[in-house]
Design brief:
Blueprint (H helix, E strand, L loop, with lengths): L1 H18 L3 H27 L6 H21 L2 H36 L1
Protein backbone atom coordinates (compact mmCIF):
# COMPACT_ATOMS: atom_id res chain seq x y z
CA UNK A 1 0.00 0.00 0.00
CA UNK A 2 2.74 2.50 0.92
CA UNK A 3 4.71 1.48 -2.15
CA UNK A 4 1.67 2.12 -4.36
CA UNK A 5 1.14 5.51 -2.70
CA UNK A 6 4.83 6.31 -3.18
CA UNK A 7 4.61 5.45 -6.88
CA UNK A 8 1.42 7.47 -7.31
CA UNK A 9 2.91 10.55 -5.61
CA UNK A 10 6.18 10.14 -7.50
CA UNK A 11 4.32 9.82 -10.80
CA UNK A 12 2.24 12.90 -10.04
CA UNK A 13 5.29 14.99 -9.12
CA UNK A 14 7.17 13.79 -12.21
CA UNK A 15 4.20 14.72 -14.41
CA UNK A 16 3.80 18.17 -12.86
CA UNK A 17 7.47 19.17 -12.50
CA UNK A 18 9.11 17.37 -15.45
CA UNK A 19 6.64 16.33 -18.14
CA UNK A 20 4.64 19.56 -18.20
CA UNK A 21 7.54 22.00 -17.94
CA UNK A 22 7.74 24.43 -20.85
CA UNK A 23 8.58 28.12 -21.34
CA UNK A 24 5.22 29.17 -19.92
CA UNK A 25 5.91 27.26 -16.73
CA UNK A 26 9.31 28.95 -16.57
CA UNK A 27 7.60 32.35 -16.98
CA UNK A 28 5.14 31.44 -14.23
CA UNK A 29 7.96 30.48 -11.87
CA UNK A 30 9.84 33.74 -12.56
CA UNK A 31 6.61 35.70 -12.08
CA UNK A 32 5.87 33.94 -8.79
CA UNK A 33 9.43 34.67 -7.65
CA UNK A 34 9.00 38.38 -8.37
CA UNK A 35 5.63 38.35 -6.66
CA UNK A 36 7.11 36.65 -3.59
CA UNK A 37 10.03 39.10 -3.40
CA UNK A 38 7.63 41.90 -2.55
CA UNK A 39 6.94 40.23 0.80
CA UNK A 40 10.66 39.78 1.46
CA UNK A 41 11.36 43.44 0.66
CA UNK A 42 8.46 44.62 2.82
CA UNK A 43 9.44 42.38 5.72
CA UNK A 44 13.10 43.47 5.68
CA UNK A 45 12.16 47.17 5.45
CA UNK A 46 9.75 46.78 8.37
CA UNK A 47 12.33 44.92 10.47
CA UNK A 48 14.88 47.66 9.82
CA UNK A 49 12.42 50.44 10.72
CA UNK A 50 10.88 48.59 13.67
CA UNK A 51 7.39 49.27 12.28
CA UNK A 52 5.29 48.31 9.27
CA UNK A 53 6.74 49.89 6.14
CA UNK A 54 5.74 49.48 2.49
CA UNK A 55 8.72 50.51 0.35
CA UNK A 56 8.46 51.52 -3.30
CA UNK A 57 10.10 48.23 -4.36
CA UNK A 58 7.07 46.39 -2.94
CA UNK A 59 4.82 48.03 -5.54
CA UNK A 60 7.28 47.45 -8.40
CA UNK A 61 7.60 43.75 -7.52
CA UNK A 62 3.80 43.55 -7.15
CA UNK A 63 3.21 45.09 -10.57
CA UNK A 64 5.90 43.15 -12.44
CA UNK A 65 5.02 39.82 -10.81
CA UNK A 66 1.30 40.48 -11.19
CA UNK A 67 1.54 41.31 -14.90
CA UNK A 68 3.65 38.23 -15.62
CA UNK A 69 1.32 36.02 -13.58
CA UNK A 70 -1.64 37.51 -15.47
CA UNK A 71 0.05 36.66 -18.79
CA UNK A 72 0.64 33.12 -17.52
CA UNK A 73 -2.99 32.83 -16.37
CA UNK A 74 -4.26 34.12 -19.73
CA UNK A 75 -2.17 31.52 -21.54
CA UNK A 76 -3.41 28.75 -19.22
CA UNK A 77 -6.99 30.07 -19.58
CA UNK A 78 -7.63 29.97 -15.85
CA UNK A 79 -10.60 32.29 -15.11
CA UNK A 80 -10.02 32.38 -11.34
CA UNK A 81 -6.33 33.25 -11.74
CA UNK A 82 -7.11 35.81 -14.50
CA UNK A 83 -9.69 37.61 -12.35
CA UNK A 84 -7.46 37.62 -9.28
CA UNK A 85 -4.31 38.85 -11.02
CA UNK A 86 -6.18 41.30 -13.25
CA UNK A 87 -7.77 42.98 -10.23
CA UNK A 88 -4.53 42.80 -8.26
CA UNK A 89 -2.51 44.59 -10.94
CA UNK A 90 -5.13 47.38 -10.98
CA UNK A 91 -4.82 47.76 -7.18
CA UNK A 92 -0.99 47.79 -7.29
CA UNK A 93 -0.96 50.44 -10.02
CA UNK A 94 -3.44 52.56 -8.08
CA UNK A 95 -1.37 52.30 -4.89
CA UNK A 96 1.77 53.23 -6.79
CA UNK A 97 -0.08 56.28 -8.12
CA UNK A 98 -0.91 57.31 -4.53
CA UNK A 99 2.72 56.89 -3.44
CA UNK A 100 4.05 58.90 -6.38
CA UNK A 101 1.47 61.65 -5.83
CA UNK A 102 2.37 61.82 -2.14
CA UNK A 103 6.09 61.99 -2.91
CA UNK A 104 5.53 64.76 -5.47
CA UNK A 105 3.39 66.73 -3.01
CA UNK A 106 6.07 66.31 -0.34
CA UNK A 107 8.74 67.64 -2.67
CA UNK A 108 6.52 70.56 -3.73
CA UNK A 109 5.85 71.49 -0.09
CA UNK A 110 9.55 71.19 0.79
CA UNK A 111 10.56 73.20 -2.26
CA UNK A 112 8.11 76.02 -1.48
CA UNK A 113 9.23 76.24 2.15
CA UNK A 114 12.89 76.39 1.22
CA UNK A 115 12.54 79.18 -1.37
Amino acid sequence: MLIDLSHAVGGYLYDVFVTRVDWWVFLGIVAQGLFTMRFVVQWLASEKAGKSVVPMAFWWFSISGGILLLAYALYRRDPVFIAGQGFGVFVYLRNLQFVLRERKAGRDVQGKGAG
